[in-house]
Give the backbone structure.
Amino acid sequence: MMTFAQNVLGRMPKKVFLPKVEVKKVVNIEEMIDKLTNRIENCLKMNFKEFSGTATNKEEKIVVIVGFLAMLELIRNGI
């Protein structure tokens, strides 16, 4: 019986401590809509190249994509 108990206890999973990581801020569609609304009010005519700028890294490209989606949402809402 003692051998059985030792085998069972020996097979129990060990407690694993995961390293803490820093969480990055996610681009929010509502914030992007607010920014776009302000930019459009200030500049009535612009093309997409002026809007997107020069996205060089992954984070900037994500901001451009979310901005494009926010612009489509604004158009859909008639703003």
About this structure: DSSP finds four helices and no strands in the chain. The chain has a mean pLDDT of 79. The CA atoms of residues 52 and 64 lie 6 Å apart.
